[in-house]
Specification:
Blueprint: H1 3-41
């Protein structure tokens, strides 16, 4: 495997990790927002 293929693999892996992290943050924020809304109703 030449260096260009390693570079492309690293680039793809980096974007997958970033996408997973941002998706995780979005889910946690949505859950937090829902909990805050429920606390306001009580």
């Amino acid at each position: 495997m030449n260096s260009v293929k390693f570079l492309i693999a690293a680039y793809v892996a980096t974007w997958l990790i970033h996408g997973t992290y941002i998706g995780s943050l979005a889910r946690h924020y949505a859950k937090f927002k829902q909990q805050m809304k429920e606390m306001g109703k009580k």
